[in-house]
Automatic annotation (TrEMBL):
Physiological role: Catalyzes the conversion of uracil and 5-phospho-alpha-D-ribose 1-diphosphate (PRPP) to UMP and diphosphate.
Entry protein name: Uracil phosphoribosyltransferase
Any GO CC annotation of this UniProt entry: cytoplasm
Organism per entry: Intestinibaculum porci
Catalytic reactions of this protein: UMP + diphosphate = 5-phospho-alpha-D-ribose 1-diphosphate + uracil
Length: 207
């Protein structure tokens, strides 16, 4: 299992806008859209390809096509914020949805919705969620998706805490993780420090 922290000046700039508590819902979503596109570009750069025959206006030649169907799975609610950016780069991706909330006291995740496209067992599944805190929500999502037969799963989060990364590395050594930033720690309420607060609330204006 690999953990990749993307080192990119534009991502650092835009993530700082998202971290700022005075950033509006509108600008928060805009920065998230832009970061999602950059992350989609980064995580897909070595996706497997198959050779195809094509004909240019000049001659016959060999081209490429992505070898696998991509299934993008946002963890609701906040994961929805990464979908537009990923779909801009990967317009043929199918979308699965998994609804999850964290109990604010126990920090235990609860799944309340799941719907996936057919063929997930032969697809490359990209789970997206802005926040990886204890790792409980991502773990539950990965477990559910594995039960449905998926074998090729990656997890893409904006901000991760070392606690959650360690937990997932142990439980799912086969799932590669990509982050835009690895933060310092979790506080006593299970929030990432310095983090960006509650991603879902900031994205949907529900705080
Ligand atoms: O790693 P964990 O400790 O499980 O925490 C991370 C989860 O918390 C947030 O969701 P939240 O429960 O706030 O739901 P929301 O997206 O509906 O706001 C976030 O989007 C992750 O799904
Ligand atoms: O810091 C955190 C931790 C979990 N979920 C969030 O939205 N933010
Ligand atoms: Mg939330």
């Amino acid at each position: 299992m690999s953990v990749t922290i993307i080192d990119h000046s534009l991502i650092k700039h835009k993530l700082s806008i998202m971290r700022n508590k005075d950033t509006s819902t509108y600008l928060f979503k805009q920065a998230l859209d832009e970061i999602a596109m950059l992350m989609a570009y980064e995580v897909s750069k070595n996706f497997p390809l198959k050779l195809i025959d094509i004909e240019t206006p000049v001659c016959k030649t060999t081209g490429y096509e992505l070898a696998e169907q991509i299934v993008l799975v946002p963890i609701l609610r906040a994961g929805i914020g990464l979908v537009d950016g990923f779909r801009t780069i990967m317009p043929n991706a199918k979308i699965g949805h998994i609804g999850m909330y964290r109990d604010e006291e126990t920090l235990e995740p609860h799944e309340y919705y799941a719907r996936f496209p057919k063929g997930i067992e032969n697809s490359k599944v990209i789970i997206v969620d802005p926040m990886l805190a204890t790792g409980g929500s991502a773990d539950m999502a990965i477990e559910d998706i594995k039960k449905r037969g998926a074998k090729d799963i990656i997890l893409v989060c904006l901000v991760g805490a070392p606690e959650g990364v360690k937990f997932l590395q142990k439980k799912h050594p086969d799932v590669d993780i990509t982050l835009a930033a690895l933060d310092d720690h979790l506080n006593e309420n299970g929030y990432i420090v310095p983090g960006l607060g509650d991603a879902g609330d900031r994205l949907f204006g529900t705080d």
